[in-house]
Design goal:
The complex is a heterodimer. Helices cover 22% and strands 13% of the residues of chain A. Chain A is an alpha+beta fold. Chain A has 2 domains: 106 residues, Alpha-Beta Plaits, CATH 3.30.70.20; 60 residues, Alpha-Beta Plaits, CATH 3.30.70. In chain A, the strands form 3 sheets. Chain A has a two-stranded antiparallel sheet with strand order 1-6. In chain A, strands 2-3 form a two-stranded antiparallel ribbon. The longest helix of chain A is centred in the last third of the chain and has 13 residues. Chain B is elongated and about 105 Å long. In chain B, helix 2 runs antiparallel to helix 3, helix 4 runs antiparallel to helix 15 and helix 11 packs antiparallel against helix 12. In chain B, the strands form 2 sheets. A 3-stranded antiparallel sheet of chain B has the order 1-2-3. In chain B, strands 4-5 form a two-stranded antiparallel ribbon. Chain B is mainly alpha-helical. Classes of the chains: A alpha+beta, B mainly alpha. Chains A and B meet through helix 2 and helix 3 of A and helix 4, helix 6, helix 10, helix 15 and helix 16 of B.
Chain lengths: 181, 390
Amino acid sequence: MNKIMYLEFERCIGCRACQAACRECGDHDAKERNYVDYIDFTESRQTFPMICMQCKDPACARVCPANAIQITEEGVVLSAMEEKCIGCRNCTFGCPFGIPKFDFEKNKMYKCDMCYDRTREGISPMCASVCPSDAIRFIDFDEMQELRRRRVQMNLIEGKKPMEGNKWEYVPEFFGVYSDS
Amino acid sequence: MERLERSFYSKTSMYSFFVILGLLLSMMVATDRFIHMDMALIGYAIASIIFAIGLTIRMSFWFYRTATNRVAKRSLKNLFTKERLIRNVRSIAITFVDNILLQKFIFKRGLYRGIQHLMISWGCLISFAITFGLTFGWMRFDLIDSETYQIVVFNIPTLKMAAHGVFAEIVYNGLNLGAIMVLIGVSMALARRLTNYDVKVTQRFEFDMLPLFILLAVTGTGLILTVLYTFFDGWMHHYMSLIHQVTVVIMLIYFPFGKLFHVPIRPLAAAVPMNYQEVAKIDSRNCKSCGEAYSNDDQIADVQAILGAQEFDLKLNDGTLLSDYCPRCRRRMRALKVMNMEAPQGDPYGPVNTNNGIHLPGFGQKRSESFYVSTEKKQAKEENNEPVSR
């Protein structure tokens, strides 16, 4: 089993089903741990989903004075251990991606743990399993490589942007159709 | 100081040495030069000394961590700043009462968990106080006459009490009381750990269950001792006391290296209202991009110093650090970077242009002429004006 989370921000339609699903996950205590944000509300209605990167060398764990953030053997960065966390929120400000959330009432930090009880068994996380537009996917590593290659072909990664004259070269074959996968 | 350090194997061993020295000195003073040592408790005393060494080692290593060190240093500095006196006293008092005495935050996680934790923690604290007091000889009972006991603390006679008074009974049964509290708490915790699916997600046997079983063994054997000498005339008492001693030694040696180590690190929670956010949810530092308050200067300075000390400063092209931005802006920056839609050229703090150049005909208004410059021209423009990551 070598599955990864694959996000495609452009596909997000802002339905927030992932957040609703996150609240239902075991051990999440009816609070969502992922984000759906607007890129710039005054410009467009484009949203994007955001979950934890599960860094190999997490900045949140490095700034934690209580040594409360642990990484499992599968590489999942867990929420701060409740008995150790002193509630200083250094992790929230240390994280380069702004992921950890803090519960002031219960005095504990909580963050995306990739639905550890599900992914540990190879089941897709809650958010990926409900996303209607495939903005969040839980797929094989090889499948991810294939998708990335296609994005490079579309030149969305390397930096060139479609212009008025050549925009049709960038339109994906699967534009608006999700039947090819 | 450095020469003293160099005469030891390591700093940690130096600290351990002085801790043991202090303990032995306190024992000597308290027992009037070891005259009143309770030889029946010598096994506990040795185990307690090992416990002290283990605790010192773990505490030293914990304070050696960059993050802990930084927070602890700032706390110490603020503690001795006169202008902060009121704030210090208030935050330490509030943390002590709310977090350690009453453990309010655990009750907010659930009444069941609150009761369970209060029982275990206070049972353990009572038992530890009595055990250490007696084994190190810090506290002992002297018979004055046939009807009166006197409590002697550090060789100073203090309270007198009737040998069969109510107060005396409470003092004698302190350990039993603590054991019953721990027994209730541990049973509740075990029941929760075995049945609750939410807890099972991240629970590990050696970390979460083992300390419960050890505590259960200690309290169980201890309570059986009481039962044996009150109802069975001390039948099997000797063997049972040996078993109890073994369990206690295991617990003391396990303490600094397992889950129970969260007890000595808890007081650092006072550092949060003392150094960082005095009142919950009130921020004073503004985000560099959107201008909204998200934290306070001291905390961001600490976070940047900790990350910087570990060569992990997360610096951007324009010299700002990622921790200068609020979490929301950081998420946006990551998404924009991935989507190749970084900040507009020239002004890294201006509004983001979410239009990526594709516009379907028939939907938008006619664009300005500048949009239709030829591709080559635009590329040349891009090269000498690289977009700034913000």
